[in-house]
Amino acid sequence: MKSIVIVNYGMGNIYSLSSAIRFLGYEPILSSEERDILEADYLFLPGVGSFYNAMKKIVSIGLDQILKIAVYDKKIPLLGICLGMQLLAQRGTEDGESEGLGFIEGSVERFQQIDKKIKIPHIGFSPTTITKDDKIFEGIDKKADFYYNHSYRVICPEEYVIATAINGEPFVAAIKKDNVYGTQFHPELSQSNGLRLIKNFLKLKDAV
Amino acid sequence: MPYKRLIFILLHDSGKFVLSRNFRLQRVGDLNWLIKNYNFSTISYSIDELIVLDVTRQNRSIQSFSNILKAVIDNVFVPVCAGGGIESIDDARVLLNSGADKIVVNSLLYTDDKKIMELSKNFGRQCIVASIDFKLNDNGVYEVFYKNGQLSAGISLSEAIKKAINSGAGEILINSMDRDGTGYGYALEVLDGIDFEMEVPLIISGGAGKAEHLIEGLKNEMIDAVATANLLNFIGNGLPLARKKIIESGVELAHWNSDEFEKLKQLREK
Fold this sequence. Notes:
The complex is a heterodimer of chains A (208) and B (270). Chain A is built from 6 helices and 13 strands. Chain A is α/β, with parallel strands linked by helices. Chain A has a single domain, classed as 3-Layer(aba) Sandwich (Rossmann fold). Chain A has a 9-stranded mixed beta sheet. In chain A, strands 6-5-7-10 form a 4-stranded mixed beta sheet, covered by helices on one side. In chain A, strand 11 and strand 12 (169-177) form a beta hairpin. The longest helix of chain A is centred in the first third of the chain and has 11 residues, at 63-73. The model of chain A has no long low-confidence stretch (mean pLDDT 95). Chain B has helices spanning 31-37, 40-43, 62-72, 89-96, 108-111, 113-123, 157-166, 211-219, 231-234, 238-248, 259-266, and strands spanning 5-13, 16-21, 24-30, 49-54, 80-83, 102-105, 128-136, 142-146, 151-156, 171-176, 202-205, 225-228. Chain B is built from 11 helices and 12 strands. Chain B is an alpha/beta fold and 270 residues long. In chain B, helix 8 (211-219) links the parallel strand 11 and strand 12 (225-228). Chains A and B meet through helix 1, strand 8, strand 9 and helix 6 of A and helix 6 and helix 11 of B.
């Protein structure tokens, strides 16, 4: 049985993510313990709230260091979801500047209301374009709908971008760098498209 | 840009699910009834979002409501908003830990709006939905009510919307008490009185009785989502049919393949 850990630092709506993983036939562990995280086959980093508060929590319990070992030394696949993806970047600007986990070069900035028709937060299912083939998108159409709920978005070098969507302007919908993945959308709230993506993520190591 | 959304609202009162008509509640069945009569996880394939509200008027317990919430959304993979009587960060956290992705606040806007800002700072603006109940008063003003429609807030609908946005809400849900449960269609005329640009999404509720009402709402350019709590009209085959009619009318909604759920179940690792 795969060891799947949802990194629990008190700021994620982990319930829906756990039930999605369970629906797929796995039993996730909710933990912030070093041992669980370093022994995991797959890691999820969820998140709801502000970048600043989340990083403060993460640093206060030493999770940033544990995650760095997990990602760099243990090469465990990590999927950051929504705020969890934003935390992968180097720098956040929500509630003042703060440092992120830094797995991916880039920063997190608020959407700009360049047009009155643009709603912030960006809420709902949006058409998402897969810009780079990746195992995580197997069986999912090149243009698929995923659910978003956010006011901030990641700005990062194009080489890490694997999907984009539009809210007034194009923005980064999913990123990948080595074993680190992030989705701005919530796969666990995106009906069957999202379940398929989670399933694909949990099979990444099967192929190796 | 996001698609417009079709939202179903489940109203819960003391362990039962209820129908509301002009805010008078009629119990229709408990959780077993809901599960037995309507396969709720299948119904969720036809909606973009689910709102579960606790409208219990006496001895409200966020704990027992959160247990109901967990049971309702078992195998439901759409965003869930929950609310009813949220007064503190702890209340909100109970619901967020029980499967809610967003929380709905209502009375707090008039009793302690600073609390909404606190919730917004804690969980992010995108997590806070402000629900505003209103009815047309004798002076022709859309007057806002709270505490299950029992008390007047003494302000108009537009004022309440501004107040909610300024208090940190990331989404506004407006509900016409006059139309509530009537099936006469949404009170779209109230939108004429909103003379400012809203940066946050707007959800309309109250009055939808058939698919045509949902379509009217979705075709209105001020509206981002339509909601209905009309359990009997839309549950069963109602929602799948309504979704089909909406799409046929030319309104584009999000797509997914419902057959995938079964396929993914088959692929479960033993």
